[in-house]
Automatic annotation (TrEMBL):
The lineage of its organism: Bacteria, Pseudomonadati, Pseudomonadota, Gammaproteobacteria, Lysobacterales. InterPro entries: AB_hydrolase_fold, Pept_S9A_N, Peptidase_S9_cat, Peptidase_S9A, Prolyl_oligopep/macrocyclase. It comes from Dyella kyungheensis. The keyword Protease applies. Residues 30-432 form the Peptidase S9A N-terminal domain. Keywords: Hydrolase, Protease, Serine protease, Signal. This is S9 family peptidase. Residues 499-687 form the Peptidase S9 prolyl oligopeptidase catalytic domain.
Amino acid sequence: MTTKTSLWLTLALSLTLSGMTHAANTITPTAKDPNLWLETIDGPKQLDWVKQQNAETVKTYADNAEFKQLDARLLEVLDSNARIPMVSKIGDHFYNFWRDKEHPKGLWRRTTLDEYRKDTPTWETVIDLDALSASEKENWVWHGADCLKPAYQRCLVALSRGGADASVMREFDLTSKQFVKDGFDLPEAKSVMNWKDTDHVYVATDFGPGSMTKSSYPRIVKEWKRGTPLTSATVVYEAKDDDMSVSAVRDNTPGFERDFVFLQIAFYDSQTFVRGKDGKLTKIDVPDDANVDAHREWLLIEPRSDWNVGGKTYKSGSLLAAKFDDYMAGKREITVLFTPSDTTALDAYSWTRHHLILNVMDNVVNRLEVLTPGPGEWTRAPLGGAPALSTIAAGGVDDDSSDAYFLTVTGFLQPTTLYYGVLNQGEGQAIKHSPSFFDASKFDVSQHFATSKDGTRVPYFEIAPKNLKADGSNPTLQYGYGGFEVSLQPAYSGSVGRAWLEKGGVYVIANIRGGGEYGPRWHKAALKADRLRAYEDFAAVSQDLIARKITSPQHLGAMGGSNGGLLMGNMLTLYPQFYGAIVSQVALLDMQRYTHLSAGASWMAEYGDPDKPQEWAWIKTFSPYYNARAGQKYPPVLFTTSTRDDRVGPVHARKMTAKLESLGYNTSFYENIEGGHGAAADNKQAAFMSALGYTYLWDHVK
């Protein structure tokens, strides 16, 4: 399924979230920061500090029978062979990447549709990552494969050492199930390599000094011919140092082959060019903050700001369609496929051969529409239904040749069901059901709205025992993210059920500004100088829970990761009075130096540039590391991170822990040596990290 992020923005975002070579950062001293020494990621002194912190945290929270039982039960969820093996179609087969107890690193495997529809399909192993890791003496983590259509014989496989975003890329043959000797091969780097044809690829990588932008991403994309050294690859496009990244890709849809160059100027600004056979680039004429996506004869456009063109104004967050060739020729005959309202936003879209499936959120709950191109207006019809307060999503199986689709329905208390159907051929049939990992009959789901400081209505979901007493004594876990236009929607989690709900806890998802729950406007409302709005929203949800006597500060815990970890840092320093404990995972925390740490420079469109005094003036208001000070009533806090996190990096959590400890606060820390930004390289590590976070909160807010 294609999300509302376009094909090329997806490539850029994957690049943004992709590898940094794993080395210590260059340290630029700042005044009176005694913790700069912790920025050397792999130094022996620094790792000794990490090991000591880890040992103390394990001894306090993980070295007991209750923790080990929870750890085992969460691993059982992750390793369960009854989980739905989600697949994608490549050629005539359906592929799945699978981890379980017997295959902790995982199998890339395939089957047929007829087999897949069975309760216990027969799978053919394509790559055994455990065997590969053992033979090469590497801890490989799967980062995916891109296969060349229409033959689908050759793939570009990405492998990560220990879970870091940086990948090694190798050519692989699906027929022989072997890596291609002397095939296309890239060493570890943050690279984007895409097929042009059998003997050519587009490659953006670290070509050496001067080939990376100031954001530390590829500045140059080249065309590389099979059998020649990478040094002989020809330049396709060179970005500026101040741009974020560049990449190129060919759409190999038969009859609609087109080459595109994608320039990511900043996180939300980009330009897409069509590359002619002569190498000439022609820009697709849309605003820089609009997303574009080409599919066969169609061009889809998503403006992120109101757009005036052809004498008409199209609303931010809309989805527009035009004939590709006509648009490139200068015509501006545009059809509106979706217009947002005060409560609706486009969540995703996906093509089948003849139709377009839209996934629309209305107050963070999904509905699906099927649009069919035709003369003038496209026709519309609903697709499927879902229980209240659940998530329904659909995506085309093969947009080149079929109108088949997969559809999933999931909810906080409803294990995922997978349907398979063909548009205009009756209702889809349920073919897979996720198992139940806890007794959902004991709980209710409800949606509520809190009023933020500026009067904004903020939605949140609450999952609570049916016999809940509103006496302020209920252990409650509030989770949030609030950034990068990411939406938090209803979804089943066996881990949440076993670790929190079964023990009598209340679980809350806060849909705060900065996310995408109401489209670009909801995201933009908490950008840069307005960042505090996200934290005010989260605090408003906490206040509402307390006012409704669902819980009270001593029984309310908060958790979030990455940008949500930054959210947690600000809840700690700005709103400590509302929480009994906080868990901050793989977080940004030192916002004065974040642009100099790991991939931080690429996020200035979200937070701002702290090296500019006028922007630091407001960035410092949401920099937890800067704002932490003595004499406050901070709740206990746990920071978790990973040495191999080359996206945010472990530096933030290390320094924040060290500063808080020096100020005398109750602080805990755990750094997984592997795992990347997900903080876990396999299911066993993931179960441990989850169990640690839940145990920490439960110990402090019960």
